């Protein structure tokens, strides 16, 4: 099947490369000419394990990029829209979605056959049918459900493991306005076998995505709240959660007597707060969307509030050890919002670094791949390094924000230092007795 994918970010490019790997012929479209050139030269514009190999195998044969949306839509039978949907302070920002819907509609005016337009971006419930569909009809002068199809197919991949997530997903949710649209989506996903596939309406598909992300974000804020209360009452959240996780309803016993250890339990653990390009903006967008429709989301409102306060907990822990941060050398380990990605959008490292800079600390940030993402925010007010030893040299405090695997070596590296820094463990990666001066979040 010939597919065009509009937007070549984390979702668009990964979807395009994986659909090509599954046997489809894919044309990726982007307005950023550098991205188009990079993709056609086999250079991934984002960091994602496995993506360079997939591109090496398929670019030039079943995968290409172009800036020419008309050509891509004309030469495909379905178009995926995978452009960004940021939150603009009071509601979701649909400007990129609107622009692409109009552009695709203009092409559909001249195209024969039942082309199907599928929204893959995360959009608030109603967007596909109430915003995208009318724009397609207006720009094409044609009728949805008669001349072309419209669908919604939320994406659940996680950055850092995006390729395996896309190739072997937990579920595929397909929302379509009619059977013809659903048939095209079924054809697109036919090579994905052994996976739960669910067909529904576009509106429900949109709501499923928000509900899934909101639930995970709620688990994190819940765990952070429990962590903060644990600190206040003098217990360790690690032990508290261990006792909670042993509940058979959360962690069933397997036939061989072992535990299932479902991965969702990793969300029920205290940390510096959630970040990334999805959870913060998606929960905020759903809260705003619910409020605008007369349904006040009390729990989700609190999920955001708890999360926005959480990074300052890290700085409070440090302040307990260093009375005056002015002129103090502080190393921040990790600025990516999670390991395995170069994405720093809404990373808790950003408010932490900002608070340290505001307090006059000399901040050095270490990250193996994500430093470029924070340079625009901090310029020369901080130092940057990809060398962990350089980050630790002469530091009085180490704040661990991202669980990069190389940070497992921190105890030995710190032990070898002449003056022992205080380690603020935002991810509870270490046992407290691994350091002379240790603070862990939720302890
Ligand atoms: N990043 C994730 O982990 C993830 C996971 C699931 C869902 N999503 C959702 O997927 C959508 C895309 O997210 P992302 O992180 O891939 O975004 P991104 O910001 O990484 O990429 C968006 C791309 O769209 C391009 N673009 C913008 N306007 C365009 C236009 N008119 N024509 C062609 N290209 C255009 C941009 O140049 C950019 O390359 C969002 O709605 C997001 O919420 C993201």
What can you tell me about this protein's structure?
α1 (10-21) packs across α3 and α9 (202-233) packs across α10. The strands form 2 sheets. Strands 3-2-1-4-5-6-7-8 form an 8-stranded mixed beta sheet, sandwiched between helices. The protein has a 6-stranded parallel beta sheet with strand order 11-10-9-12-13-14. The chain is α/β, with parallel strands linked by helices and 443 residues long. The protein folds into 2 domains: 2-200, Rossmann fold (3-Layer(aba) Sandwich), CATH 3.40.50.720; 202-443, Rossmann fold (3-Layer(aba) Sandwich). Helix content is 42%, strand content 14%. It has helices at residues 10-21, 33-40, 51-58, 69-74, 95-108, 127-140, 162-167, 179-188, 202-233, 237-245, 279-292, 298-319, 349-358, 371-378, 388-392, 410-415, and strands at residues 2-6, 25-29, 63-66, 78-81, 116-119, 149-152, 171-176, 196-200, 329-333, 362-366, 383-385, 397-400, 422-425, 437-440. β4, α5 and β5 (116-119) form a beta-alpha-beta unit. Bound molecules: nicotinamide-adenine-dinucleotide.
Brief account:
The protein has 16 helices and 14 strands. It is an alpha/beta fold and 443 residues long.
Q: Which labels suit this protein?
A:
single chain; 443 residues; alpha/beta; Rossmann fold; six-stranded parallel sheet; 16 helices; globular; binds nicotinamide-adenine-dinucleotide
Q: Domain count, please report it.
A: 2
CATH architecture of the largest domain: 3-Layer(aba) Sandwich
Report the helical percentage. 40-55%
Oligomeric status of the shown chains?
A: single chain
User: Would you tell me which CATH topology of the largest domain applies?
Assistant: Rossmann fold
